[in-house]
């Protein structure tokens, strides 16, 4: 039964010097252009929340590490044995490899989160039903602007609506998460607050 897949992948990434999961996937493709190593699911694999089902992934993995063991060994071996084997095979200090794997995973997570955050910057049209009974059944168009800002995630948001009573303007931070994007907006000079949760399409 496959075990410790996330930790083994992170150790492999540290050994190869691949900073992101895209680079790790490219390393697998260099071994086998038709590899079943799936970039879309690699995030779950690296976090240990899922594991590859195709045996060919483990076979490609064994070739990638230039091991004398079959792919099934990578899936089934315990973690200390895996660390000892790849460290000895590539002449790397075990403690140093574990340290690099831990540090690199944290760096990669921050890098990918920040890249995702900046990819979300832009201006979006927002539609909602009118709250006032005088405009029942009508829609209000708002503008949500997401822009680069300070902090690790580096995003701030501004929401505007042109209402009969004047313009409503709210602003606040944007917090990207693994499975959602959270926006907490407060009215400029007022009491109104909006909280927006956006959820991306999940991988099949």
SSE arrangement:
Elements: H1 5-16, H2 21-31, H3 39-47, H4 55-64, H5 71-76, H6 79-90, H7 94-119, E1 122-129, E2 139-148, E3 155-163, E4 166-176, E5 181-187, E6 193-198
Antiparallel strand pairs: 1-2, 2-3, 3-4, 4-5, 5-6
Task: Describe what you observe in this structure.
This protein has 204 residues and is an alpha+beta fold. It folds into two domains: 5-118, no CATH class; 120-198. Helices cover 42% and strands 25% of the residues. It has seven helices and six strands. It has helices at residues 5-16, 21-31, 39-47, 55-64, 71-76, 79-90, 94-119, and strands spanning 122-129, 139-148, 155-163, 166-176, 181-187, 193-198. A six-stranded antiparallel beta sheet has the order 1-2-3-4-5-6. A hairpin with a 5-residue loop joins strand 5 and strand 6 (193-198). Helix 1 packs parallel to helix 6 (79-90).
């Amino acid at each position: 039964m496959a075990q410790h897949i996330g930790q083994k992948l992170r150790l492999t990434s540290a050994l190869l010097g691949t900073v992101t999961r895209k680079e790790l996937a490219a390393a697998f493709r260099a071994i086998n252009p038709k590899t079943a190593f799936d970039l879309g699911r690699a995030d779950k694999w690296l976090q240990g929340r899922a594991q590859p089902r195709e045996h060919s992934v483990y076979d490609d993995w064994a070739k990638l590490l230039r091991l004398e063991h079959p792919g099934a060994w990578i899936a089934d071996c315990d973690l200390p044995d895996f660390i000892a084997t790849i460290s000895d095979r590539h002449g790397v200090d075990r403690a140093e490899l574990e340290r690099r794997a831990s540090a690199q995973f944290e760096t990669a997570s921050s890098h990918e989160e920040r890249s995702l955050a900046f990819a979300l910057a832009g201006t979006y049209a927002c539609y909602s039903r009118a709250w006032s009974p005088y405009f029942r059944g009508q829609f209000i168009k708002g503008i949500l602007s997401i822009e680069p800002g300070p902090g690790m995630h580096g995003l701030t948001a501004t929401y505007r609506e042109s209402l009969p009573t004047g313009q409503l303007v709210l602003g606040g931070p944007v917090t990207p998460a693994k499975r959602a994007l959270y926006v907490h907006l407060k009215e400029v000079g007022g009491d109104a607050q909006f909280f927006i949760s956006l959820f991306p399409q999940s991988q099949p």
